Amino acid sequence: EVQLVESGGGLVQPGGSLRLSCAASGFTFSSYWMSWVRQAPGKGLEWVANIKQDGSEKYYVDSVKGRFTISRDNAKNSLYLQMNSLRAEDTAVYYCAREGAQMTRFDPWGQGTLVTVSS
Amino acid sequence: QSALTQPRSVSGSPGQSVTISCTGTSSDVGGYNYVSWYQQHPGKAPKLMIYDVSKRPSGVPDRFSGSKSGNTASLTISGLQAEDEADYYCCSYAGSYTLPVVFGGGTKLTVL
Hints:
A: mainly beta; B: mainly beta
């Protein structure tokens, strides 16, 4: 079964850091672009970042550029999101998702991990 | 680019059909045949229902169909069932490295 499982969310103070992980199973992880997508409480979906199969290309939405870093370890079938200088507006459920042949084809998604930025 | 525009809510009775629209611009929806639709039940992860405007992943019922005309994409659900009640999000390729995809604001489907 193709599966993605996120971990690492929690409560953090403004300005703090957090590292999210996403464990992949059931498919050849190293063959796919991977993305992080977030959803603020009661709000819609927002693409955050993605990374190429070999990690050589990474892209970010402007609002997180310079603060978040996406990475992957193909040997461990894992995707990561290092989040620094966190702000209240970063509060959201963070999902990892596998990209298809076209980037808009996110399938599957993990169950999500909640990040709350608050003092 | 700002989010794609979807109606906040739609509703229908069991067995009826509903259509959810998703309006963008020539830089996203109108410029590419890469529109997808996601279903999200409360507290759950989104699920891919339609990709590349009108293609269905395996396992998605053929009651779900997608189309596009100009800058507006549409998701039609026929033969509504109670389990179709959920939030639906459209997503379009937007061609920019800093915002390669853009999502709609979401539509709450209520099955009466």
